[in-house]
Design goal:
single chain, alpha+beta, two-stranded antiparallel ribbon, 17 strands, 15% strand, globular
Length: 508
């Protein structure tokens, strides 16, 4: 099978063929490495790599297949790990100069779960510094370009993972999400990003363990692949006080099933009443609603009460940055990027009264939002308020000529849903007014992850039947020429220091 045809297979189909012995793990790993080496210079999505270790693990994985041993859900599937997750023996910089030579001794809980399920780590995927922002650029690795136009933003903070998936570099990639970091890059690159309910996927790196705004979750080229990765990461974890086991655990999540879309009551909103949204995106969203409303039992506008969501998110988010960066800010503030410093300074200026107010307001917003589900089964909105903009612009400072409040205000469509904690997924839905991927954010009921994924699986199939709503694909051939400008913000290359299993190379 030619590499291009092989790499276009879904992760689910790859795993099926590995189990059936019609696809060898070494063949798949070599094909992914070849693709990364060919197209990554154009987009700078994959950072530190461990190709030789991966080839050794691929041989061992193939021997397990040939011996007829039990195989994990992800057995033999090449994996890209977002560079906020610790990977044993592989450079983990978090996009920060403070960690440009950091090689962890152990995998964190997410990576360990995926490797225990049989996935083979090929490398790390690019992020904004410390995950702050929705533009995957940092002074260690440079910027990640959008595969549909590398001069434009790929989103973030899971931008490298989204681009690697869009270009078939790897079939499985991880993400995480505080204000939209799974959903925004998924929308901007034409892939799927699922933000699960807090605790469904355990997190051992969250400083404030009882705060539900930050989660880890799966990305995929389609819903079924996304579910496969999710199923491999479920489980109770004593390091995460929010972790829980759902009733439909394990294999149930790995096998989504179609639902009758005609039975669904759908609510939709362009802006949740408070979010700035570009006029062009509003028009595209209206066209998409008109194109899909016939699928449902009903499809009507909703008006959630989110009046204080912006200020509430400011406080809740800032508390996390104070917890994480107080020592670094006091000792070496010059090594922290402007987004990190802005978040820390905002939090440091707040009082206990601010924190108490924010928790009260978040609770009020949560309870009001859940009332919508008395009349609807899902809520749909645009995922992003604008078309991708140049990566050279650190963040979006105005929408429709109006200045945004701060560097993340333009992420309002996703962070208001972070506050209510409902599971939510971004699905590709055609292209926007500029010919770039357009994503719909689908918000399910509180703790309704399994039902939401089944609905998304059915929506995806319906979207694929219409050229106006089908998933767009990048032009692979146009990306074969390197774009060295993507590395223009790198200050110094990382120091590798003989990391076990890591390939010694400068940023790609």
């Amino acid at each position: 099978m030619k590499n291009r045809e092989l790499l276009s297979l879904s992760a689910v189909e790859m795993r099926r063929q590995i189990g059936a012995r019609t696809l060898s793990v070494p063949e798949l790993v070599d094909a992914c490495i070849e693709r990364i080496e060919a197209v990554n210079p154009a987009v700078n999505a994959v950072t530190a790599t461990c190709f030789e270790r991966a080839r050794q693990e691929a041989q061992a994985a193939q021997q397990q297949v040939m011996r007829g041993e039990p195989l994990g859900l992800l057995h033999g599937l090449p994996l890209g790990v977002k560079d906020l997750e610790d990977t044993a023996g592989l450079l983990s910089t978090y996009g920060s100069p403070r960690f440009r030579s950091h090689v962890p001794a152990h995998d964190n809980s997410l990576v360990a779960s995926l490797r225990n399920a049989g996935a083979i780590v090929l490398g790390k995927t690019n992020v904004p510094e410390m995950g702050a922002g929705a533009n995957s650029r940092n002074p260690v690795w440079g910027a990640t370009g959008n595969p549909f136009n590398p001069s434009l933003n790929a989103g973030g903070s899971s931008g490298g993972s989204a681009v690697a998936l869009a270009l078939d570099m790897m079939p499985v990639c991880t993400g995480s999400d505080t204000g939209g970091s799974l959903r925004i890059p998924a929308a901007m690159n034409g892939v799927v990003g699922f933000r699960p309910s807090p605790g469904l996927v355990p997190v051992d790196r969250r400083q404030l363990g009882w705060t539900p705004i930050s989660v880890v979750g799966p990305m995929g080229r389609n819903v079924e692949d996304t579910c496969l990765q999710l199923a491999a990461t479920l489980g109770l974890d004593d390091r995460d006080p929010l972790s829980y086991l759902p009733q439909a655990a394990g294999a149930g999540f790995s096998q989504p099933r179609h639902v009758d879309l005609a039975s669904l009551r759908v609510g939709y909103t362009e802006d949740f009443g408070v979010c700035p949204v570009d006029d062009g995106v509003r028009q595209v969203f209206r066209e998409r609603i008109d194109a899909i409303r016939h699928l449902f039992r009903s499809c009507d506008p909703v008006t959630p009460d989110m009046a204080e969501a912006d200020r509430c998110f400011d406080v809740v988010r800032a508390m996390g940055f104070v917890a994480s960066f107080k020592e670094a800010y006091e000792k070496e503030p010059e090594l922290l990027g402007p987004n990190i410093r802005a978040n820390y300074e905002m939090g440091a200026s707040m009082s206990l009264a601010d924190a108490a107010w924010a928790h009260l307001e978040q609770t009020r917003i949560f309870r009001n939002f859940q009332q919508l589900y008395n009349d609807v089964d899902i809520v749909i909105s645009p995922t992003t308020p604008v078309s991708p903009f140049p990566w050279t612009q650190l963040y979006l400072d105005e929408i429709n000529g109006q200045k945004t409040r701060n560097y993340y205000h333009w992420l309002g469509l996703t962070y208001v849903i972070t506050l209510v904690t409902n599971p939510t997924i971004s699905l590709p839905c055609g292209i926007d007014q500029n010919g770039m991927p357009f994503g719909l954010q689908i918000v399910g009921r509180h703790r309704g992850d399994f039902a939401l994924l089944n609905i998304a699986y059915s929506l995806e199939a319906a979207f694929a039947a219409n050229p106006a709503t089908a998933r767009p694909l990048p032009d692979l051939q146009s990306l074969l020429a390197p774009r060295p400008d993507l590395q223009s913000i790198v200050t110094h290359p990382p120091v590798y220091g003989g990391a076990a299993g890591a390939d010694a190379h400068a940023p790609v």
